[in-house]
Amino acid sequence: MEKPDERDRVVGDAEFVRGVFDALPIAVAVTQGPEHRVVAANTAYRALTGRPAPGGAPTRELFPELAGQQVYEMLDRVYASGVPETIREWRMHLVDQETAEAIEVSLNCEFLPHRSAAAPDRSMIVIVTDVSDRVRERHAAQERAELAEQRYAHAADVIASLQRALLPAGLPVLPQARIAASYLPAEADTAAGGDWFDAVVLPAGRVALVVGDVVGHGVAASATMSQLRAVLHDRLEEDGDIVAALAAADRVAARVPGARAATVCVAVLDTADGSIRYCTAGHPPPLIAAPGSDARYLPPTGSGPLASGRPPVVADAQLDEGAVLVLYSDGILERPGRHHGQAVAELLQVASDAAADRALPDPEATAARRVCDQTIELLVRATGHADDITILAAQRTPPAPGVDLETAATPDSVRAVHRTVAGWLAGVGGGSGDLVAVQHAIGELVTNVVDHAYADEPGPLTVTGELREDGTVRIEVCDRGRWRERSPAISGQRRGLGLVMAGAMVDDLRIDHGAGGTTATLTHRLAGPARLLDADGLAPVPPPGRGRTDPELLLILEQPAGPPPAIRLDGPVTALTSGMMARELRRLTAGGTRDLTVDLTGVTVLASAGVAVLQQATAMSREHGRQLRLFAPSGTVAQHVLSLVAIAHDTGKSS
Known about the structure:
Elements: H1 4-11, H2 14-23, E1 27-32, E2 37-41, H3 43-49, H4 59-62, H5 71-81, E3 85-95, E4 102-116, E5 119-130, H6 132-166, E6 171-172, E7 177-184, E8 195-202, E9 206-213, H7 219-239, H8 242-255, E10 263-270, E11 275-281, E12 287-289, E13 296-297, E14 315-318, E15 324-328, H9 340-355, H10 367-383, E16 389-396, E17 403-408, H11 411-428, H12 432-452, E18 460-467, E19 472-479, H13 488-491, H14 497-505, E20 508-514, E21 517-525, E22 527-528, E23 531-532, E24 555-559, E25 566-573, H15 578-588, E26 596-606, H16 608-623, E27 628-631, H17 637-644
């Protein structure tokens, strides 16, 4: 055992050591015994805690506000185990001794067990560092970063919306051509780009394809791009004269500084004989990819960019049946780490493989669709991209067949016609929006025949349709009966609603009542989707509904949990299935005396019969002071129909 004078030589003068202890810049306290009596505390500790010299008081008396904050538990654990512990950025609430207000601090705490001959009762050294300012600054920086991220995300959404608004909403669907397009904005840019594409339907089965590129990015480039696109579209739509259209665009470019040096490729394709007239105004030349042979580039025509003073020159080429004409912007060639010759060869090879379905096999997609999507995905994922990328492709196909169906006008015929028309529209390339609109309209017309055409027994019903060379479908629904009224119990609120819905969903609907029957004729312009891609999701997403085992079956599923009870509908709500839905609604609402949420997200068809059931069920609930909540997210079939007939519904989250 060391003698007092020996300790002095090792530790130093007691007064001196005490002074150093008290002057330490970090808070230090020493507790003793199982009650953790504070027997020593330096100035920094007293300043941090706001407590005077402790005088051996137990920690629980000095800091009663720490109960429940796991501080006492930590002291007990270290005292019992003799094992030191450290806590980083421990958030605590202390009470200000002057104001009696709670203050929040963040502390780093070290608990060090200690035992010596001078203090045989176990003691503990507690070292505390106030890191509140550092923690607050980090949290503030995190909040600033999150706010900046939110602003960036909002800006990205605005940019994407702007880009979608400036580019075509859809691409024409033609009897002898499949057209597709994909657009990928610059990876490193947060501004909308200057690339554009367009497809303009011309008389006599021709279509004009356009891809252009304005120098620069941002709102100014997008505005310039929209002016050039509008001028070219308008002039091409007149007669398809490439030289006249480019001359008009050249005049605009001469007046608009941002349009100077813009490049354009225009190609007019005759879908019947495959002849092509094209011009490459300073733009990379188109290529032709044929499933059975290697791809090839067409020769440049030698024309200069807009406002360059070099007049447009056109050339001729030929597109065989099944081959794909591909227009693109130079962003697909100017990828990082690739010299021009290498990029040109890669584009040709990948486009050829995609057209022949040798790259990422997708037999359900058209060759044009595969070229647009897979070419971008396969090339960009290897190198990234620094500029906007646009690809527009047109595949020449055999003439699209029509639809010709004759059946008996029974309730089952609605299902048969739905299936036939949906398959036909998908076969000619109609988009999902067209399928919903035309299928709904046809369903209402066929239901109208079933309800009103024949008195005693079902008579004949015919449905014929064709895709015309201007990109519109013309469908006739004919019967040979005479109009008859149904009983109010059957028709009720549906009287006239079906025809109103049908007419609102298509471009034009005409009803001709004659002595030999009634003919309903609808026309509707079809449009295929153009894809605006992002670098994180290049692979195309399967269309909704793919893989559904029975598209004709209506499933009514009770959803678990919380009041009010909820059900989900999946499948078609037609004249055949609306009765089942009505019975379930009456049962689950107890005749309108209970609240119910109906999730219509999975509804594939919402015919007037189903609309009438929802109207009646909603009114019944309202009469009893209850709520029937209809949930139909934006973009769904149900949301479109309910908005059309002005039935209140929610489009937000179902929960």
